[in-house]
């Protein structure tokens, strides 16, 4: 499981010019989700870093983030 703080730290290392939150509220670790059914349908998990980069680029292309 990836903690929110770790994910933001990863984003900061890739996109250092954006503003990021200083405080975090972590979700209870008992609230886990499973991708088992998706995998049975042929879905393949990607690396977190790849997913984050694709997400930021998509938000930029849609005009939700600056291109800094």
Q: Briefly, what is this?
A:
The chain has helices at 4-14, 36-40, 48-61. The protein is mostly helical.
Shape: globular
Number of helices: 3
* Largest beta-sheet characterization: none
Round the Cα radius of gyration to an integer and report it: 14 Å
Protein structure class: mainly alpha
Kindly report how far apart the N and C termini lie.
30 Å
The proportion of residues in beta strands is under 5%
Amount of helix: 40-55%
Q: What is the N-to-C order of secondary-structure elements (H for helix, E for strand)?
A: HHH
How would you characterize the overall build of this protein?
By secondary structure, the protein is mainly α. The N and C termini lie far apart (30 Å). Helix content is 44%, strand content 0%. 0% of the residues are buried. The protein contains 3 helices and no strands. α1 packs across α3.
What brief labels describe this structure?
globular, mainly alpha, 68 residues
